[in-house]
Amino acid sequence: MHIETPIQKLARSQQEVFEFLTDIKNFEKLMPENIDKFEVLDDDTFKFALKGMPEIVLRRKEQVPYEKVVLGAASDKLPFTLTALINSVEETESEVTLSFQGEFNAMMAMMIKSPITNFMETLSNNMATAV
Questions:
Q1: What sign does the CA torsion over 30, 25, 66, 84 have?
Q2: Which of 21, 56, 18 is closest to 37 using CA atoms?
Q3: Reduced to 3 states, what is the DSSP secondary structure of residue 108?
Q4: pLDDT score for 42
Q5: In whole angstroms, how far apart are CA 68 and each of 3, 20, 108?
Q6: For residue 27, with 0-12 CB atoms within 10 Å meaning exposed, 13-18 middle and 19 or more buried, which class applies?
Q7: 46-79 residue pLDDT tens
Q8: Helices (H), the chain
């Protein structure tokens, strides 16, 4: 399953956005209002839970300076990645696209597609004010 957000324009440089996203604790600022829990486990890992949903542990899997940050599920039960692609538009402006890639059976994909799409859109929208 692949979900991608529309491009989000930010009034920040590519480097500023990259540095914001590589600081794991900043993801708390991007979370939806219905967040129930957020905890930084180490420099590369955090866990969060939205009301009525199970806890999810995300770990930084890859980063390409100023261009890409990849977070992935720490558990192999539900393997997925969340990727932020950062493009420079001008010196003080950049664009970010978030994409979700996961391997789920058809039933699971049908159940989680809408909540994940909403979650991704919220992360993207909150980036405009948080970064």
A1: negative
A2: 56
A3: helix
A4: 97
A5: 17, 12, 28
A6: buried
A7: 999 988 888 999 999 999 999 999 999 998 877 8
A8: 14-22, 27-30, 106-130
